[in-house]
TrEMBL record:
InterPro entries: Aminotrans_3, Aminotrans_3_PPA_site, PyrdxlP-dep_Trfase, PyrdxlP-dep_Trfase_major, PyrdxlP-dep_Trfase_small
Similarity section: Belongs to the class-III pyridoxal-phosphate-dependent aminotransferase family.
Species, as recorded: Antarctobacter heliothermus
UniProt name for this protein: Taurine--pyruvate aminotransferase
Enzyme class: transferase
Record-linked CDD domains: OAT_like
GO molecular function terms noted in the UniProt entry: pyridoxal phosphate binding; taurine-pyruvate aminotransferase activity
Signal peptide: none
GO cellular component, one term: cytosol
């Protein structure tokens, strides 16, 4: 029989993995099949996946309906493209459906295949927009520390996690970062939500003024930060930030790659968190991970310039991927959205999210090294730190507990995730997760934390 573990160890270059360590030790888990929230590995052991893969399998694994949609579309029209005004039916139907769900003021969808390429497309759209308006110097993009926007040359720099820049000469020179709204590490002890939001908005304004408002094109933010630590902004944060952006003619890009399509209990995270973006990036939840598909949603204000001055100056829009508007991916998305709607999964994500966040808060309340349990909808995290007389102190990198907790929980059959910046364990289960499954996740991870700490 083929030893697939050996093949993996020898030939696969793994993302976000220790190069030599993987070659020596091989895969931590070899997933073979999955159903609902459960993955079965190559030894037959079942694991409860509290991360929905990488925050993406929103409708759960093993949906025949999406598998059928993929197969049917592959048989009917396996591929065609959207270049030079060519089109396919599934992409057209999907675009209308996405725009109908989006907040008011969105006109068009530009499809891609990943969250990273969506954010690269965003940068190009923003630059094109300002070039078309005769503002060639207005190009800088401001992101946030701990933000996660992908890993391509542009989006990898927007990502505000130093570990993703190291060794890659990122970020590119037109990218800047401001502080994350993190309760433990950036909020001052005496600050309420309004004061915290006002200070972060002031930091943004100071940066725009220091750079020169005529050089700043856009600000990009996730409604709730995901991979940077499930960071939920304080009440009033986006309103305060948005007032600054409006003052200096700076576009707001909402990175909805995790939050979009229901994870916060609303169709888009922007709605729940009070953002009024000009542009939105979506991916993951649009197909629940059954096929790689992303979208850039373009608001009317930007579209008017692209289709007006932009077309007049530059002719055809010179950007697109071979797989832009891929019909098989679009068919998967349509079947996925049918399931989300018919099973009221957006509402369910909100309800089960409350359940998850309550359960985590109760289970971890007594552990002295828990700095915070936090979340919104079906995104949650537990952050660990050392309590000191003056507040919290980060564990040294070699002594971080989150990776050890995640490993111990995996031994006990629960998949969670240690986040790359700081010492947090995160959760983002499928929207179909049950209360019993959440209880099992929380008790297993709590037990692992007790054993490790
Ligand atoms: N934006 C956000 C908010 C994400 O969470 C991710 C991935 O986790 C990305 C962008 C990048 O998406 P991809 O990994 O599909 O390139």
């Amino acid at each position: 029989m083929t030893d697939t573990r050996d093949l993996d160890r020898r030939f696969v270059f793994h993302p976000f993995s220790m190069a030599q360590g993987h070659e020596q030790s091989g895969a931590l888990m070899m997933a073979q099949s999955a159903e609902g929230c459960w993955i079965t590995d190559d030894s037959g052991k079942r694991h409860l996946d509290s991360m929905a893969g990488l925050w993406c399998v929103n409708v759960g694994y093993g949906r025949e309906r999406i598998a059928d949609a993929l197969a049917d579309q592959a048989r009917k029209l396996s591929y065609f493209h959207g270049f030079s005004s060519m089109a396919t039916e599934p992409a057209a139907i999907l675009a209308e459906r996405v725009i109908a769900k989006a907040p008011d003021g969105f006109s068009k969808v530009f499809f891609g295949a990943s969250g990273s390429d969506a954010n690269d497309t965003q940068a190009k759209i923003v630059w094109y927009y300002n070039n078309a308006r005769g503002l060639p110097n207005k190009k800088k993009i401001i992101a946030r520390d701990r933000g996660y926007h992908g890993v391509t040359v542009l989006s990898g720099g927007l990502t505000g996690l130093p570990g993703l820049h190291a060794g890659f000469d990122l970020p590119l020179p037109m990218i800047r970062h401001v502080s994350a709204p993190h309760n433990i590490w950036t909020r001052n002890a005496e600050e309420d939500d309004a004061a915290f939001s006002a200070r972060l908005a002031q930091e943004l304004e100071d940066l725009i003024l220091a750079e020169g408002p005529d050089t700043v094109a856009a600000f990009i933010a996730e409604p709730v930060m995901g991979a940077g630590g499930v960071i939920v902004p304080p009440e009033g944060y986006f309103a305060a930030m948005q007032a600054v952006l409006d003052r200096y003619d700076v576009l707001l890009i909402a990175d909805e790659v995790i939050c979009g399509f229901g994870r916060l209990g609303t169709w888009f995270g922007s709605e729940r968190m009070g953002m009024k973006p000009d542009l939105m990036s979506v991916a993951k939840g649009i197909t629940s991970g059954y096929a790689p598909l992303s979208g850039v949603l373009v608001g009317d204000k930007v579209w008017q310039v692209i289709s007006g001055e932009g077309s007049a100056k530059y002719g055809a829009f010179g950007h697109g991927y071979t797989y832009t508007a891929h019909p098989v991916m679009a068919a998967a998305a349509l079947a996925n959205l049918d399931i989300v709607e018919e099973e009221n999964l957006v509402e369910r994500a909100g309800q089960m999210g409350d359940y998850l966040n309550d359960a985590l808060a109760k289970a971890f309340a007594d552990l002295p090294i828990v700095a915070e349990t936090r979340g919104k909808g079906l995104m949650a995290a537990v952050e660990f730190a050392r309590p000191t007389r003056d507040g919290w102190q980060k564990f040294d990198p070699g002594l971080q507990v989150a990776p050890r907790i995640v490993r111990a929980a995996l031994q006990d059959g629960v998949i969670s995730r240690a986040l790359p910046n700081g010492d947090a364990v995160s959760f983002s289960p499928p929207f179909t997760v049950t209360a019993e499954e959440i209880d099992l996740v929380v008790s297993t991870v709590r037990k692992a934390a007790g054993a490790v700490c």
